[in-house]
Design brief:
The complex is a heteropentamer of chains A (263), B (531), C (232), D (389) and E (360). With 263 residues, chain A is an alpha/beta fold. Chain A has helices at residues 59-67, 90-96, 113-120, 127-131, 137-149, 165-179, 195-208, 221-228, 247-252, 254-261; strands at residues 19-30, 33-44, 48-52, 74-79, 83-84, 98-101, 183-187, 213-217, 233-237, 240-245. In chain A, helix 3 packs parallel to helix 6 (165-179) and helix 5 packs antiparallel against helix 6. The longest helix of chain A is centred in the middle third of the chain and has 15 residues, at 165-179. In chain B, the strands form 2 sheets. In chain B, strands 4-3-2-1-5 form a 5-stranded antiparallel β-sheet. Chain B has a two-stranded antiparallel sheet with strand order 6-7. The longest helix of chain B has 50 residues, at 213-262. Chain B has 3 domains: 18-105, no CATH class; 128-211, no CATH class; 233-530, ABC transporter involved in vitamin B12 uptake, BtuC. By secondary structure, chain D is an alpha/beta fold. Chain D is built from 11 helices and 15 strands. The chains are: A alpha/beta (263), B mainly alpha (531), C alpha/beta (232), D alpha/beta (389), E mainly alpha (360). Chain B binds chain C through residues 403, 406-407, 409-410, 413-414, 416-426, 475, 525, 527-531, and chain C through 48-50, 69-71, 74-75, 79-80, 82, 86-91, 95, 98-100, 102-103, 109-110, 130-133, 146, 150. The complex binds adenosine-5'-triphosphate (2 copies), urea and magnesium ion (2 copies). One adenosine-5'-triphosphate sits between chains A (30-31, 33, 35, 53, 55-61, 103) and C (129, 133-138, 163). One adenosine-5'-triphosphate (ATP) sits between chains C (11, 14, 16, 34, 36-42, 83) and A (162-167, 192). Chain A: Keywords: ATP-binding, Nucleotide-binding, Transport. Chain A: Residues 21-263 form the ABC transporter domain. Chain A: This is Urea ABC transporter ATP-binding protein UrtD. Chain A: It holds the Pfam family BCA_ABC_TP_C.
């Protein structure tokens, strides 16, 4: 192994076929339980895709597969045309341009808000550059901009662990933006946010639309409706795709009502 | 024990109050000439009567005394028995113990075992036959033949036949030798190897040591059979030693599996809890010696609950005063418990002294049972294996089948939430640490039966205990069990090949490599719940 | 039933709760509202005893429980569904449910009532799976089920709908409604999902920067004055 | 000052406390005894006790402290060879005196050290000679069993050379080592048993204190009796046996220059004094205290030093060293011991004792008189002509 | 926040004062005779020299434990290997002045070795041995760490295998045949680079070099932990997996600080051996490594200065207690450990921080 191993060149992403992510026949087994069952899905460049589905449908597991946290039992996952995600480690995938917000906020609790953002910032993340890193004024500006965006300015030198639940959610979104990923995965971004905050998040996502490819998992139907607009919404159930279509189509699908929305 | 044995012998060998032993035979015993003394013993043995047995037994047991003028007495408590006259009287003036060394004791042993072949008590004859297997000479052959004619016991008879055959190996008669060699094909006695091997070798002048071709071939056969049997015995022996070492590791690690594995306390004082258990055993033994000398053999039965209670109490005290301030700061428990360990060690040193104290195996745990001919399984080892099984089962039941166990596990995983559902976490913490400590105390009882009991006792086990718990996977009882047994076996199969030192090094390297393959230990928690 | 008087709480030097008072009757449901970070969770933790209060008092059925430890409060009849679920990750689902019965004794302590399985059928399927392996929403369901099993006098729910699929949110709403109707329990519901809270609550209270800025009966919840405190 | 300070450098904690603590107490007793008779040069002796805690670098530090800070005139101390090696440079640098009371492997001679324990020829070699004799059982095969460190390794090297010179073949010698603190002797005992099938076997044990109990217990339980396979130990004395159930050990041997059971007026007096001292000072287990070889060596060493100071009329190191040469002392072993004028070792008698059920030794063999030490074993090549300072 | 200066101005002046005071000690010892009011006893100087080596080891340990959250229970092995590496040179420098008057060290003569084994070749060169001081602990740490970190061994699992490592090395070095003098180790050194090792001037020089190494390492470590890399290390400590999801490979970060720490520890050992005069395998005993952890914990981990204070405090107390109350000192020391954990969760450095806060 060389020090450079796994650091996939940033420019290497090949999206000539228009899709940024392909999942094909992904199966994930946990001690005999099929969390994902031959799941196939793809996402186009610049698309904002909403994923909904019952608790335990496998949404988080799917994100785990994409980010390298869980290895699929079978099936393939490609980032662009060439990057086989199932052969890459977590940091290689992150470096290749996939960023993720977890279902439960995960931030560096012992670091300040500022440092959380600084760590996440897109830059050379090898040992030596990190050791000699100095923030340029441009980078300072970027952090300040994000701080304002997530409305934690004034809190930047507080320890992140001391934030409230909702504030942590925002910080994590901020970190994601610092990473400038090509593909953003959001696992229940508005859980625990007030309605007003939710609306702001929707706004933010609508702004990001087109600049990044985005995959959002949510149970808040109002929010999903807001951001899905006319795009495709995928419904997962028992590890595979149950239905797919616009929000309106999906919402009126009997099976979706049965297993997910309720009457 | 020995006295009882001696009485039986007396009764057995027709108690026709003999006039005593000829003083001329006795005289050399008090003298300075070692050869004469040995000769006297052989002669006395040849008398083959009750007095001879009594005298030789006394000699073996250091019960033989002499007055300065060379008169011999057998001293039994406060009585002096005169073997020359058969009279018993008070202790004469200036009595001094007869100097007996191994050579004399050995000679007495030989003489006695030949005599015991004719004892009516089956156990005695069995012991004698076993003893004779170790060393038998051609000269004893007639005696053994004689014993054989009278022997009907199904177990002793074949043994005696083997003994006779062994004796006959040196017979000048080729046919006898051949018969002997063939008879020995079913023996498992390792002492035969050199004799049989010698039959295969050549003299310096090129002639065969064993002139008879037939005997040589038979000897080669017997040797091969013996070797394969010995190899099997050795394998089974290693297996047993491994289980035995494994159960010791397990008993020492089990308490730690609770205080460290479950509670997350890097308990450097664990070793000292073992030590306190061992000292409690010592105190029980002293108590029995003082107040219940007749039941001394059962002091262990009292020591088990006592050790559990004492160490658990110490554990509870520690938990209440020190540990409870440290939950959620696991690394700091290392510092505090290290301090505790220093204090406990020095306390014991101040109270009991820096030296080891004596803890004796009860009689029923001394010695061992011989299986497969030559493999001795020590009783104390067997007892500890059984004990380990009991303790593990107990702990498993408590943790998995009781409400207490459920609360313990819940508190250890999420103390705050356990409180919110109504569990008194302080109480559970105290009980859990007490339980872990108490079990360490039980481990200490076991250790006291194997090794020394001193203030440093725990230091020798702390590193191994941590390795076992971690190798098994922290918080995994089953892992601890498997790891302990695995390390025990690995150690015992490596040791004959590599020696104790290299075996130990190899085991450590093995642990390092094994953890590479299983970074969460043997029984790793998988999935999301592990995070 | 529950009387909270002027409680104050500090995290170090930051004053998180400022003289919060509330009163809640048996059989009633109160919705606790407020923006992110205003101190809702902190208030609930103070009620449960997980955090100490620096001033003020908490009474349950007239009994002062201000200085009681959480387990004593649980035994006094409070059950708590915390934000972030806090299930016992390495206990099985069944064991997690049994933990809900920790305040009971005897046979009652070992029988999980079938009701919870009716409410959350998924738990029945996953009885022997470890709690930590469940999906986020499943864990939330487990946490609620655990609290219900305790048969409390007061149940405190901190954002119980977070991460739960719409159909089950409806079910949870039904349960809360049912519990309220049964009338033997007081419910304190902290919720971001306004419509849900609006539908279930008899009364409400809005916090802002640790202070009660609005409170009243359900009917006034939709007032613009109230909504103003919830807007960004 | 109106006192003469003497340093006592024995571990009172850590692994060596087991053995060294009683040496500190004996030293204090001896100093009391000398003071009761008026002290040395008309001054009282004042003991400075420190605890080097079984930590070798701490030994060096403490030695330096005693000499440089406390200005002691002499130090009595150390047990393990490595502790002695660690303090040696300090004594040389500061030109002070150390009295070392324990049997050791030899291969050393230092101007600043007096060795009052045994050199290999005063313990190991006679023991093996005895085992090979008819009285000792006429052993033909030998298991050299020790803890893996320098003293056993060196002793065994010397013994192997010695045995070879007596015609014992390499295949009849088995050398086995165990790590410090080893407590599982199952395999080793089984191997000894196997080895002993090949002819009359004796075990020569240089096992370090702590491992002895498990070893003997295993031996007893495996049914290997002293009459079958005698074990002679060089590190097991009365003090060690206090912590052992001696029933299964009956008849096993130890070789020393002193046993408590030796009968003579000096020894009786010595034992009496020690027992009284233990009671008076409320030492732990005061009613069961015993004496042993290193304790005697400590006692002898302190007295000899006091005599030498009287003779030199000074505590000056060089003058005392000169005065030490040829000092004699009537020792509890029953012999008058002499400090060799050239090699700083005592001439000592050698006893071989068999373990009795009461934890004492009955002497089965002894040298007619004191033996001169050979710190440089002649069985190690290149040692010829190195017997003097 | 982003830190622009290494230390605050006050800290700088504090450190500078301390360095000057410490540097003055051996000079006072040299230039004022015994009995003079300003004389510092040489016992004192050698004691502080030794403590500084311990302090350097504690500082090294704090880098991995306090910052990256990697608890090593095996740092004794790096310390000892550094010491052995330097010790080889010191043994060679004895020349023919050993007891056997041979070119080989005494223990080799004794083992009948006729030539140096391969791993002793070229050790007569001082600079080669100094290179070994850095290389041996460094390479061992790198290889060990590479495999362990690559396998994602963490927490107690890592701690325990480091303990296994040091234990294994201890047993290995105990063996006479390994070629490092068995349990007697190396001792009885005579000279270093031609200067007598017991000469006051040599001692003062060694002392000053140690002081320089300690002060230099402190500044270096401070610089590292204040860099972004320092913050990454702390992130490794708090949430390694999160760090991976934002694109850092923790392996190299851990390996960097782990190896650096081992090297510093090796240097501490190398400076220790000529001042103490002995190196033997018991330095690799698990208990010794745990003691290093104790120093860091008492002083306050994650503070750099704390472990230095801790090493001085614990060892100072130990030196004092073992002389002043030889029978009771373990009670006192044990109690101090307990009280520190109970009342000073951040160690002594934490006390200082608290005090400063209260002042403000
Ligand atoms: N390690 C595991 N072991 C066993 N089962 C698991 C494991 N991890 C996940 N599961 C199961 O896999 C299924 C899918 O879980 P996942 O977290 O992907 O669901 P989800 O769609 O994200 O649900 P939610 O909306 O509640 O977050 C669930 O039933 C869960 O219980
Ligand atoms: N342990 C703590 N130490 C210091 N401050 C804290 C701590 N926990 C929370 N806070 C702060 O206290 C305030 C109230 O937090 P709390 O969690 O009660 O908010 P909340 O109203 O529940 O918010 P949300 O809707 O996001 O859950 C927040 O500003 C938060 O940053
Ligand atoms: N010198 C000894 N016994 O180590
Ligand atoms: Mg999910
Ligand atoms: Mg909240």
């Amino acid at each position: 192994m060389s020090a450079n191993d796994g650091r996939v060149a940033l420019e290497g992403l090949d999206t000539t076929h228009g899709a940024i992510l392909y999942l094909e026949e992904i199966t994930v087994m946990f001690d005999g339980f099929r969390a994902l069952n031959k799941l196939s899905l793809d996402i186009s460049v610049g698309e904002l895709r909403c994923i909904i589905g019952p608790n335990g449908a496998g949404k988080t597991t799917m994100m785990d597969v994409i980010t390298g946290k869980t290895r699929p039992t079978s099936g393939t996952a490609f980032f662009g045309q060439t990057m086989d995600l199932s052969r890459m480690t977590e940091y290689q995938i992150a470096h290749a341009g996939i960023g993720r917000k977890f279902q439960r906020p995960t931030i560096f609790e012992q670091h300040t808000v500022f440092e959380n953002l600084e760590l996440a910032m897109k830059t050379d993340k090898r040992v030596r550059p990190t050791l000699f890193a100095r923030l340029s004024s441009e980078q300072h500006g970027k952090i300040a901009e994000i701080l304002t965006l997530i409305r934690l300015n004034g809190n930047e030198s507080r320890l992140a662990g001391l934030l409230s639940h909702g504030q942590k959610q925002w910080l994590e979104i901020g970190m994601l933006l610092m990473q400038e990923p090509q593909l953003i995965l959001l696992d229940e971004p508005v859980a625990g946010m007030s309605d007003a905050e939710t609306a702001r998040t929707a706004e933010l996502l609508n702004e990001l639309r087109g600049k990044h490819s985005i995959m959002v998992v949510e149970h808040d139907m109002a929010f999903v409706t807001e951001i899905a607009q006319q795009g495709v919404v995928t419904v997962l159930h028992e590890g595979s795709v149950l239905a797919q279509g616009t929000m309106a189509q999906v919402q009126s699908d009997e099976r979706v009502i049965e297993v997910y929305l309720g009457r | 024990m020995l006295r009882k044995l001696f009485l039986i012998v007396c009764l057995g060998l027709a108690c026709k109050a003999y006039a005593g032993i000829d003083p001329a035979l006795l005289a050399p015993l008090t003298g300075d000439d070692p050869d004469a003394r040995v000769e006297a013993i052989v002669k006395i043995g040849a008398l083959a009567n009750a007095d001879a047995t009594r005298l030789l037994t006394a000699l073996k047991n250091d019960a033989l005394y002499a007055t300065p003028d060379g008169h011999l007495y057998i001293v039994d408590d406060d009585n002096a028995y005169d073997p020359a006259t058969g009279a018993t009287g008070p202790l004469p003036e200036g009595l001094d113990g007869l100097m007996v060394n191994n050579r004399l004791r050995g000679a007495a042993d030989d003489a006695l075992s030949a005599l015991k072949l004719f004892a009516p008590d089956r156990a005695l004859r069995l012991a004698a036959a076993t003893e004779l297997q170790k060393s038998v000479t051609l000269a004893q052959a007639p005696l053994i033949e004689k014993a054989l004619t009278a022997e009907n016991d199904a177990e002793i008879r074949p043994m005696l036949q083997l003994v006779a055959a062994t004796a006959n190996l040196q017979s000048p008669d080729g046919a006898k030798r051949k018969a002997a060699v063939e008879a020995l094909a079913s023996s498992s006695n390792a002492n035969l190897r050199p004799l049989l091997q010698a039959m295969q070798t050549d003299n310096p002048d090129g002639t065969h040591v064993e002139p008879d071709e037939g005997v040589r071939v038979a000897a080669a056969h017997t040797l091969a059979a013996l070797d394969s049997r010995l190899a099997r015995t050795e394998f089974i022996g290693n297996l047993f030693y491994g289980i035995s070492l494994g159960s010791v590791l397990l008993l020492t690690a089990l308490g730690l599996a609770i205080t460290f594995g479950l509670m997350g306390i890097i308990n450097m004082a664990h070793g000292e809890l073992l030590m306190i258990g061992a000292y409690t055993t010592y105190m029980c033994q002293m108590g029995f010696r003082r107040f219940l000398p007749d039941a001394l053999d059962w002091y262990l039965v009292a020591a088990l609950p006592a050790a559990f209670i004492v160490t658990a109490a110490v554990g509870v005290a520690l938990e209440r005063t020190v540990i409870r301030w440290l939950y959620g700061r696991p690394l700091e428990t290392l510092l505090a418990t290290w301090g505790i360990s220093l204090i406990l060690m020095q306390s014991v040193r101040t109270i009991f002294g820096a030296q080891n104290v004596e803890v004796a195996n009860p009689a029923w745990m001394s010695g061992g049972v011989t299986v497969l001919g030559s493999l001795v399984l020590a009783y104390n080892r067997i007892a500890i294996i059984v004990f380990a099984i009991f303790v593990v089962t107990g702990v498993w039941l408590i943790l998995n089948k009781t409400r207490l166990g459920l609360f313990v596990r819940a508190v250890m995983q999420n103390r705050r939430m356990a409180g919110c559902v109504g569990v008194s976490t302080a109480k559970i913490d105290m009980m859990t640490f007490g339980l872990g400590s108490g079990i360490a105390g039980l481990g200490g009882v076991a250790l006291s039966q194997l090794g020394n009991v001193g203030p440093d006792l725990g230091q020798g086990y702390i590193v191994d205990s941590f390795m076992v718990v971690v190798l098994g996977g922290v918080g995994q009882l089953a892992g601890t069990v498997i790891a302990a047994l695995g390390l025990g076996e690995a150690n015992k199969f490596l040791e004959p090949v590599a020696g104790a030192v290299l075996a130990k090094i190899a085991i450590l390297i093995f642990i390092i490599i094994f953890i590479q393959k299983r970074p969460q230990g043997l029984f790793a928690m998988k999935g999301r719940s592990a995070e | 039933m529950l009387q909270v008087e002027k409680i104050n709480q500090y995290y170090g030097s930051s004053h998180t709760l400022r003289g919060v008072s509330l009163e809640l009757e048996r059989g009633k449901c109160m919705a606790l509202l407020g923006r992110n970070g205003v101190g809702k969770t902190t208030l609930l933790k103070c009620l449960m005893g997980v955090l100490p209060v620096s001033a003020g008092s908490v009474k349950l059925e007239g009994r002062d429980i201000t200085r009681m430890a959480p387990h004593q409060r649980a035994r006094a009849g409070i059950a708590y569904v915390p934000q972030g679920r806090e299930i016992f990750a390495r206990l099985t689902v069944e064991e997690n449910l049994l933990m809900g019965l920790a305040t009971h004794s005897g046979k009652k302590a070992s029988t999980i009532k079938g009701e919870v399985y009716e409410l959350f059928p998924v738990l029945k399927d996953m009885l022997h799976r470890r709690g930590g392996d469940l999906s986020g929403g499943q864990q939330q369901q487990l946490a609620i089920a655990r609290a219900l099993l305790a048969e409390p006098k007061l149940i405190i729910l901190d954002e119980p709908t977070e991460g739960i699929q719409p159909s089950i949110i409806k079910d949870i709403g039904n349960v809360v409604r049912l519990l309220r109707q049964r009338g033997d329990m007081a419910i304190l519901l902290c919720e971001q999902y306004f419509d849900f809270a609006h539908e279930l609550a008899d009364q409400f209270m809005v916090l802002s920067r640790g202070e009660v800025v609005a409170s009243g009966a359900q009917a006034t919840m939709n007032d613009p004055e109230v909504k103003r405190h919830l807007a960004v | 000052a109106d006192t003469i300070k003497v340093g006592i450098l024995h571990s009172l904690s850590g692994t060596m406390a087991i053995s060294e603590t009683s040496l500190k107490d004996v030293a204090l007793m001896t100093i009391d005894e000398i003071n009761a008779k008026g002290g040395v040069l008309g001054k009282k002796l004042e003991a400075v006790v420190v605890d080097p805690a079984s930590n070798w670098p701490l030994f060096a530090e403490k030695a330096r402290g005693l000499i440089a800070q406390d200005k002691v005139s002499v130090v009595f101390g150390c047990w393990t060879s490595v502790s002695r090696k660690s303090v040696l440079p300090v004594f040389k640098e500061l030109n002070s005196l150390l009295f070392y009371p324990v049997q050791y492997e030899g291969e050393e001679l230092e101007k600043n050290v007096f060795y009052t324990g045994a050199a290999p020829n005063q313990q190991a070699i006679p023991a093996v000679q005895y085992l090979m004799s008819k009285e000792g059982g006429g052993a033909k095969r030998f298991v050299l069993l020790g803890t893996d460190y320098v003293y056993p390794r060196t002793t065994n090297k010397i013994l192997r050379a010695y045995l070879k010179s007596k015609g014992v073949k390499d295949s009849d010698i088995d050398e086995v080592y165990t790590p410090f603190g080893h407590s599982d002797y199952q395999t080793i005992v089984a191997n000894i048993k196997k080895f002993s099938a090949g002819g009359k076997t004796a075990v020569i044990s240089t096992i370090n204190g702590d491992s002895n109990v498990p070893f003997y217990k295993e031996l007893g339980n495996a049914g290997l009796k002293a009459t079958d396979v005698p074990v002679v130990a060089f590190s097991v004395g009365e003090e060690e046996l206090r912590g052992v159930d001696t029933k299964p050990l009956l008849g096993h041997l130890a070789a020393w220059n002193y046993f408590e059971s030796v009968k003579n007026p000096v020894n009786t007096e010595f034992i009496k004094k020690w027992k009284a001292y233990a009671v008076a000072k409320k030492l732990p287990n005061a009613n069961t205290v015993v004496t042993n070889d290193p304790m005697e060596a400590t006692y002898v060493g302190i007295h000899m030093w006091a005599q030498a100071v009287e003779k030199a009329k000074s505590t000056d190191t060089d003058k005392v060293i000169a005065a030490m040469a040829g000092q004699t002392f009537k020792a509890p072993s029953g012999f008058t011991l002499t400090m060799d004028p050239t090699n700083h070792h005592l001439h000592k008698p050698v006893f071989i004792g068999e373990i009795r059920p009461d934890g004492q030794f009955s002497v089965v063999w002894k040298t007619p008189g004191p033996v001169r030490a050979n710190p440089w074993s002649p069985y190690i090549p290149g040692n010829e002509g190195k017997q003097k300072l | 926040m982003t830190h622009t200066s290494l230390f605050s101005r006050r800290a700088w002046s504090g450190i500078a004062t301390l360095v000057v005071v410490l540097a003055a000690l051996p000079l006072l010892n040299l230039f004022f005779a015994d009995g003079h009011a300003l004389h510092v006893p040489s016992y004192m100087v050698s004691l502080i020299g030794k403590f500084m080596c311990y302090a350097l080891a504690a500082l090294a340990l704090d880098m991995v434990w306090g910052y990256a959250g990697i608890l090593s229970l095996g740092h004794g092995v790096f310390f000892a290997l550094g010491a052995y590496a330097h010790g080889m040179y010191l043994m060679r420098a004895i020349g023919r002045d050993g007891v056997y008057q041979s070119d080989l060290p005494d223990f080799m003569v004794f083992l009948d070795w006729k030539t140096y084994p391969w791993f002793w070749s070229a050790t007569d060169s001082f600079w080669y041995c100094i290179a070994l001081v850095v290389l041996v602990p460094g390479v061992l740490a790198f290889v060990f760490g590479f495999f362990a970190f690559r396998s994602r061994i963490k927490g107690v699992y890592f701690s325990i295998i480091t303990q296994a490592m040091t234990y294994a090395f201890m047993l290995l070095f105990f063996r006479n045949n390994t070629g490092f003098g068995g349990n007697n180790g190396f001792t009885d050194f005579k000279r270093i680079l031609g200067y007598s090792i017991s000469a006051p001037g040599t001692k003062a020089t060694l002392y000053l070099v140690t002081l320089a190494a300690l002060a230099g390492s402190l500044v270096l470590c401070r610089w590292i932990v204040q860099s972004k890399l320092g913050r990454v290390l702390q992130a490794v400590r708090d949430s390694e997996s999160r760090l991976m999801f934002i694109g850092y490979n923790p392996l190299w970060f851990k390996l960097f600080v782990w190896t650096l720490s081992a090297v510093l520890c090796g240097i501490a050992g190398a400076l220790y051996v000529p001042q103490v005069g002995i190196i033997n395998p018991s330095e690799m005993s698990p208990a010794n490594s745990i003691e290093m952890v104790i120093w860091a914990a008492v002083g306050g981990r994650g503070t750099l200065v704390g472990p230095i204070i801790g090493a001085f405090t614990v060892n100072g107390l130990k030196s004092w207690f073992t002389g002043a109350f030889p029978n009771l000192w373990l009670f006192a020391l044990g109690l101090i450990f307990i009280l520190v954990t109970r009342y000073l969760p951040q160690g002594i450095a934490g006390l200082a921080a608290r005090w400063r806060k209260e002042q403000a």
